[in-house]
Write a structure and sequence with these properties.
alpha+beta, Phosphatase 2c, domain 1, six-stranded antiparallel sheet, five-stranded antiparallel sheet, 18 strands, elongated
Length: about 400
Amino acid sequence: MNNLCTDIGHRSLNKYGEQLCGDHLDVVEQGENSTVIVLADGLGSGVKANILSTLTSKIISTMMAAGTSIESCVSTIAATLPVCSVRGVAYSTFTIIRIVNGEEAEIIQYDNPDVILLRDGNNVEYPMEMVNIEGKLIKKSRIPIYEGDIFIAMSDGAIHAGVGLTLNFGWKREEIIKYMQTFYHVGFTAKTLTTILIDECYSLYQGKLGDDTTVCTVRIRKRDPMNLIIGPPSNRDDCSKMMSLFFAKEGKHIVCGGTTASIAANFLKKPLVPKLDFIDTEVPPTAKIEGVDLVTEGVITINKVLTYAQDYLSGNEAYRHWSYKNDGASLIARLLFEEATDINFYVGKAVNPAHQNPDLPINFSIKMRLVDELVECLKKMGKRIKVSYF
């Protein structure tokens, strides 16, 4: 096993006029170092398609994560799902990407657009083995993976984008490849690459999608640890221990909170230099300590980061703000969402006297809830999280 890991981002758009999406995507961890991603496209649209795709995705991802062969998965789907009276078939189309130990990608495809592989900014045509399972022609591939590889899976709503509107014959796979190649070297996260592609599909459809459209991007990258400390310890005597453990960790270091910053400055024997410029009126200014990568205010800043994290997991609309701004919350968002793969939280449980003012909407329980909710959001982004309380 090497030091590579997966950065996964996906988004779906419903067919125009439909309340439910006929596509469904599941990501399941297979042990500690392998991941199974299943994108299913249910036949038709609406409720029936949603049920078909959800069941297909759940069955395949669960069985494959348990080590079941694709032959058994497809047989189970055929036997489990009801047969469509119009088309005479029992399940949706699907794409499976399994990343094994950061070394190999196994790709299994049935009737979805072929997965795109970008390597060093170029399209890679990978070998496919055709296998007949339960009367269905399945494409199977095994590909060694390298740092920087980008896999793009999509439902056929993507290649049908713009049919009869902006494009005569839809958005061909070759054209999608050329479009996404232009963003390869920018260093965008998988979620942002997905957002770029899905937004272009929406634009080509002129907002009235003729089919459910789903995009899932998988980016292969090296692990990048990050450390964030917020709040002083409940026991003052533990300040040195808490700071020793925090600064001993590999990776960048983020210090949140005025009291915490003072303790960190004393520990490092370096001055705490506040900045007085309000880049964003909603976020307090940052500060500077030699030996610390970022110093910010505490609760208000983390609350803003949580708002960005919740948006990142849904429409990712706020990316347009935090991706370039240099206020404390935007800087933390870029470090945690884009750079970090493994994040260590050091959370002090001391009660801040400044937060006990009944006129302020901040108290100890709110701070802990903010941290807990941010941790859960980061886990949903695929980050490895460890939280230590003091």
